[in-house]
Specification:
Elements (H helix, E strand, L loop, with lengths): L5 E6 L5 H7 L4 H8 L1 E4 L8 H6 L5 E7 L2 E3 H13 E7 L1 H5 L11 H9 L16 E4 L2 E4 L3 E6 L9 E3 L6 H17 L8 E2 L7 H4 L45 H4 L17 H10 L12 H12 L5 H5 L19
Parallel strand pairs: 1-2, 1-3, 3-5, 5-9, 9-10
Antiparallel strand pairs: 4-8, 6-7
Length: about 325
């Protein structure tokens, strides 16, 4: 390889959207090619794990690691790439917070496997076979990664230098972060402090959203397909769930602009430890139960409960992207079921 800085990108438990978003930086991809040598990028080039194992420790200048830690292979690769990389970036929501894979922390490993391989109308598995880490076949022994009971974020397995949020990160943010890293590598410019969240803002998504906000209260919440929203008025005030009040800016409020509530993929605001709890507090401030002084507290509580019950899948809504990093982390379940 040449003396150019070395770039790696790896895909753990994720959907592949982060790779697509990286390629969506447009003509800047030519600049990336001019600046970096690829040291490991199995999604687009024929690299092997043995290649990485053969590098000296710290050989890779920047590694963009996307995906949660769902199985033993994910963990092994995280530790290997941490050792081989000077700068390790938790790239995207799965690596940063666990994202969609970590919603399985609401149940058990066994329940997940049962749903995928047994209790599924599209599955043809009359013998009830489940994946096994080691299987003996006539040709020899086959080994697959061990499936974990709990999904973890990247920093719950190895030290992480920077976090780039988003599901996936927005291309303009990816390019901005790469520019900062390149300036540090080639020009000696100061890098952000280790542990920084890069490629995001410092305020709520609501501040990026130009919809009119009148601090109205709501008595019912709707699914996106239940009503046609007024795209000039705050979606949350129309009863459409929007995580904007609990989510850090950086995306440009893209979802609300097309009538879809923010899903929360850029993660919590600075200083907020639990994004879901922050959103619950925001919901509590706008629920309208038409209460009056002297009303029976039990009756008011029932009205509040009725309003909250119109939120479908609260855990999946409030912790869609942040379950692994939340105070909840995972639920206690009967692992024998």
């Amino acid at each position: 390889m040449s003396e150019k800085p070395k770039l790696a990108m790896y895909w753990a438990s994720a959907c592949g959207g982060c790779e697509i978003s990286t390629l969506n930086i447009g003509e800047h991809i030519l600049a990336v090619d001019a600046i970096f040598d690829l040291a490991f990028f199995p999604c687009i080039a024929d690299f092997k794990v043995k290649d990485v194992e053969g590098y000296e420790d710290g050989f890779i200048d920047v590694c963009l690691f996307n995906g949660a830690i769902r199985n033993s292979e994910n963990e092994e690769m995280a530790k290997l790439l941490r050792r081989k990389s000077k700068v390790l970036v938790a790239f995207g929501s799965c690596a940063y917070e666990g994202c969609i894979p970590a919603l399985s922390n609401l149940t058990s490993k066994q329940a997940t496997l049962n749903t995928v391989y047994l209790d599924n109308p599209s599955i043809d598995n009359p013998d009830g076979v489940l994946p096994q880490p080691i299987t003996e076949v006539p040709e020899g022994e086959l080994e697959i990664p061990f499936f974990y009971n709990t999904v973890r974020s990247l920093d719950q397995v190895v030290d992480v230098d920077y976090y780039l949020p988003g599901c996936p990160p927005e291309p303009h943010q990816i390019w901005a972060v790469l520019q900062v890293v390149v300036a540090g590598l080639l020009e000696g410019a100061p890098l952000p402090p280790p542990g920084s969240i890069v490629g995001a803002g410092s305020m709520a998504v609501c501040e990026e959203c130009d919809m009119q906000k009148d601090v109205k209260t709501v008595a019912q919440f709707y699914r996106p397909y239940d009503i046609i929203p007024d795209t000039n008025i705050c979606l949350l005030e129309q009863g459409i769930m929007c995580m904007g009040p609990a989510t850090v800016s950086g995306c440009g409020a893209l979802c609300p602009q097309v009538g879809m509530g923010c899903r929360g993929c850029y993660g919590p605001l600075p200083g907020i430890e639990d994004q879901g709890a922050r959103m619950v507090a925001a919901i509590g401030s706008i629920v309208d139960v038409d209460g009056k002084p002297g009303d029976d507290e039990k009756e008011l509580a029932q009205k509040v409960e009725a309003a909250i019950n119109t939120i479908v899948d609260p855990a999946g809504t409030f912790y869609r992207f942040s379950m692994a990093h939340s105070l909840l982390h995972r639920t206690r379940v009967n692992t024998h079921q």
